[in-house]
Design brief:
Blueprint: E1 2-4, H1 6-19, E2 24-28, H2 30-35, H3 38-45, E3 51-54, H4 57-62, E4 70-72, H5 78-87, E5 90-93, H6 96-109, E6 113-118, H7 130-140, E7 145-151, H8 161-182, E8 187-189, H9 193-198, E9 206-209, E10 225-237, E11 255-260, E12 277-280, E13 283-288, E14 296-299, E15 310-314, H10 326-332
Parallel strand pairs: 2-3, 2-9, 3-4, 4-5, 5-6, 6-7, 7-8
Antiparallel strand pairs: 1-10, 10-11, 10-15, 11-14, 12-13, 12-15, 13-14
Helix pairs in contact: 1-3, 5-6, 6-7, 7-8
C-alpha cells in the first residue's frame, strides 16, 4: 500500500524557495517523479516552480500541459530529438555528437532547437570537458541552436565540501567563458538538493531540487510517500533460532517475529536486510533476516501487534538506517 501526500511536495518546494532568495527553482521530476507520479507531482508544483527537469522526451511531452519550460536531462536519439524540437522542449547538449544530431534535426525541420549545455565539472558522467568545450564552439554557435542555459552536477555535495567547491569553481570558470564566446547571458544552474542547503553561492540563477521535493535532504522537509504493509503472521522464537533465507540472522534473545506481506517484488531492495526500521502501532521495530519476494520479517518483541495490523515501512513516522538508499527505494516503490 503506497500513499503520496502531494501537499507535502508543495510544502517542500515552498521551503526550498524560501531558502534561495528569489532565484529560480527547477523541479526534478524524472523517472515518474522518483516514483511519486509524474503528472500529479507536476500539477502540485505548477504554481511554485519555474521549470521542470525530466529524464526523457516522453516525460517532457506529458508536462507540456502545464505551460512551463521542460528540460530533458538525458541526451535524446534522433526520433526523440525531432519530437522535442517540434514541441519546444529544451534539450541537453553533453557532447559534440549530441550537438551535431540536434543541429541536423533542427535544420531538417526548419526550426531552432532550444538547448542547455551540460558541462562535466568532475563527475565524469555527462558533459563537455574543459578541452572538448573549446573544440565544440563552432557547432554550439550554429544558428540552428538557441543556447539558453548551462549546467553541471555535483558528485558529492552532501559529503565533500572541498571537492564540491572545486567543481563549482571549474563550472563557473567554464560557464563564464561559454557566455563570453556566445555573446549572451545564460541561465546557470548547478545546485542539487544537498548543495542548496550547504552554500548559497551554489544557487546561481536557478537550483534543481529533486529528492528534496519528496522529503529528504533536510530535516525540515516532509516525506511525501508512505508505504504500508500488513502483518500476516506472528511467531515467537528462542535465542539462537534462525530467521530467513541464508541463515544470516540469529535471534540473540527470545524474539517475537512479525511477517509482513511485502518484499522485493514490491520494490524493496534486499539491501534492507536488517537495515530498516518500521513503525508498528507507534513502536519502532527493526527488520530482520533477508527480504523475501513477497514477505519480510520484523522484530516485534516490543510492540503490541496482532495479525492484520497495518505497519508503516517508510514515511513521516519512520526513521531510516543511513545505509538504506532512499533514491532507489522511492523510485522502486511506485504507485500502481
Amino acid at each position: 500500500m503506497i500513499f503520496v501526500d502531494y501537499d507535502a511536495i508543495t510544502s517542500n518546494a515552498l521551503f526550498v524557495k524560501d531558502k534561495i532568495a528569489g532565484k529560480k527553482i527547477c523541479a526534478v521530476v524524472k523517472n515518474d517523479a522518483y516514483g511519486h507520479g509524474l503528472v500529479s507531482v507536476a500539477k502540485a508544483l505548477a504554481d511554485v516552480v519555474d521549470m521542470y527537469a525530466v529524464g526523457s522526451v516522453d516525460e517532457g511531452m506529458a508536462l507540456l500541459q502545464f505551460g512551463k519550460p521542460v528540460l530533458v536531462l538525458i541526451p535524446a536519439d534522433t526520433t526523440d530529438t525531432t519530437c522535442a524540437i517540434l514541441n519546444g522542449l529544451i534539450l541537453t547538449l553533453d557532447s559534440i555528437d549530441t550537438a551535431k544530431r540536434v543541429v541536423t534535426c533542427a535544420k531538417a525541420l526548419g526550426r531552432v532547437a532550444h538547448v542547455h549545455i551540460k558541462l562535466d565539472s568532475g563527475m565524469s558522467r555527462l558533459g563537455f570537458s574543459k578541452s572538448t568545450l573549446d573544440k565544440s564552439m563552432p557547432i554550439l554557435m550554429d544558428s540552428a541552436l538557441c543556447v539558453d542555459g548551462v549546467f553541471s552536477h555535483f558528485a558529492c555535495a552532501d559529503t565533500d565540501k572541498r571537492f564540491t567547491d572545486c567543481q563549482f569553481d571549474l563550472f563557473c570558470s567554464q560557464a563564464g567563458k561559454l557566455q563570453q564566446q556566445l555573446g549572451k547571458s545564460l541561465l546557470k544552474h548547478v545546485a542539487n538538493t544537498s548543495a542548496i542547503f550547504i552554500d548559497s553561492r551554489y544557487h546561481l540563477d536557478m537550483v534543481r531540487v529533486g529528492i528534496g521535493l519528496y522529503g529528504y535532504g533536510n530535516t525540515s522537509l516532509i516525506p511525501a510517500k508512505t508505504m504500508c504493509a500488513r502483518v500476516v503472521a506472528l511467531s515467537c522464537h528462542s535465542k539462537g533460532d534462525i530467521v530467513g533465507y541464508g541463515a544470516n540472522f540469529v535471534c540473540n534473545q527470545n524474539t517475537k517475529v512479525a511477517v509482513l506481506d511485502v518484499g522485493y517484488a514490491s520494490g524493496l531492495s534486499r539491501q534492507f536486510c536488517s537495515k530498516c526500521i518500521v513503525d508498528i502501532n507507534g513502536v519502532r521495530c527493526p527488520s530482520i533476516g533477508s527480504i523475501c519476494m513477497g514477505m519480510m520479517m520484523v522484530d516485534a518483541t516490543q510492540a503490541n501487534v496482532s495479525v492484520g495490523d497495518v505497519v508503516v515501512l517508510f514515511g513521516k513516522s519512520t526513521t531510516w538506517n543511513k545505509h538504506v538508499f532512499m533514491y532507489e527505494t522511492l523510485c522502486n516503490t511506485r504507485l500502481k
